[in-house]
Amino acid sequence: MPATAIAGWLGRERVQTIVLLLLALGSAPVQAGLFDDDEARRQLKDLSIKTNDRLDTVSKGQIELANQIQTLRDENARLRGQVETLTYELESARKRQQDFYVDLDGRLRKLEPQMATSAEAKPAEESKPPVEAPRKAAASDPAAEAREYEAALNLFRANKLKEAAAAFDAFARAHPDSALTPSAYYWLGNAHYALRDCKKAIDAHRVVVAKWPANPKAPDALLNVATCQQELADAKGAKGTLEALVAKYPDSTAATTARQRLKK
Fold first, then answer.
1. Rounded to 5°, angle at Cα 239 from 236 and 244
2. Domain 143-264 classified CATH 3.40.50.300?
């Protein structure tokens, strides 16, 4: 082979080798770029999945928190209603207690002249049999009855409920015709109710309504009967008692409370 041909052949081989090297060097960045794009897509996909998971967790937490807030609002509204009811009943009880003491004070003031007259006439009565005089005094002494009644009421106020119930019961049995006997039965019922004996409470309050329907405590006694019936799960009986209260004592404070309960 001539020297010129050999030189030409070597030149072509060198050119082809250079071209192949350039092609190889050019394809490497392309492959690296493709690899980088796939990795980026994978990372974006993973990030999207994690973000969605976090959003789902946050959303569930917000829903649960909203439910808890609504539950607390409902409970707060229920408790507010109970507080309002108890406040009203407490104010009514205070007013009834105040009325009682005003009435008792008036009775004692009326008795003062009689007690003075009795003291002046005492020497003339000394000639009577010693046994008979104390009996008449004990049986017809309103001041003594008032003190006995007040003692029972003090036991109730001191939260000595069993003792108060026994004292009111004893008073009612010993003084069936006393002007304070209706109140004694009324507080006897309240004492039994405080002792969680609703059946005895109903019996005592019904005595007030049956024997002294015109007594100021009769409407409250009926209301207390209805309260006890509700606690005994006698909804029908409680409704009937409340309706009877509204019909019989429409202008009483107890009737106002009864109307409110009937609306519920």
1. 125
2. no
